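I'm curious: can you give me some protein's one-letter sequence along with its backbone structure tokens because I've never seen that pairing?
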Amino acid sequence: MDEQAFALLIEPHRRALHLHCYRMLGSLHDADDALQETMLRAWKGSDRYEPRAQLGTWLHTIATNVCLTAIARRRARPAELSEDLEHLQPYPDRLLEDLVARETVELAFIIAIQLLPPKQRAVLILRDVLGWSAKEVAEALDDSVAAVTSALQRARVSLEGRRRHVPPPGAEERELVKRFMTAWDAVDVDGLVALLTEDALMTMPPERMRVAGARAIGDFFGSVPQGGRLDEIRLVPTSANLQPALAAYLRADDGKHGPFRKPRTRTAKNRA
């Protein structure tokens, strides 16, 4: 089989593999890299693929090990370690398969599994998300069934204490998003703060920034993005990880809006 024919053979699995890498790594960008590495390894090892084996299982095995290697490499750089998960990124709904279960991609789940040890994370995803048997997981990880079963039990216990299930969005949640947008357009910082819980947390991956608490987030909104001129930043409702989200677009000097990539503090000179 030539390279082009092989690429066509595995193309239907690309989206599922990308989502699998995202669950493992918690980063859209890292998932892109892991997917490319998976495709490369699959092509290089295509002569060892046995047609009687399920292609999807074989590809997911490669992807899982690629991700485990990436995690080990990430952990080998102490300066980049953080329990705050700065690398965590949302997953665009447009990339999700129609039948993906919401609870397997919601941010609460992705955050919770990132806190698991790598092996437990892999076992949990393969067993509870993809529905593999303990034997299949053991073969994929080159481990014993007993070790896989033990890792799964420990992962489930840890997950129960960390995961907070988010119910499907309803009218109340959509109304909350609308109220947030209205307060934002009116530069009503106090109104924004009133819509946040006291334990609200704001991060902006990949920036190493963490703002904790409703009032602190309000102070940030009132001073950092465009020097507090929130009306220069347009919010557009969207969704990510099958949950409501807002995309921010900054008005440029020509009056047109473009993606708001990084907060800037405006000085008096800049505002003049």
Notes: The first strand starts at residue 201 and ends at 203. The chain has a mean pLDDT of 86. The longest helix spans residues 55-75. The radius of gyration is 22 Å.
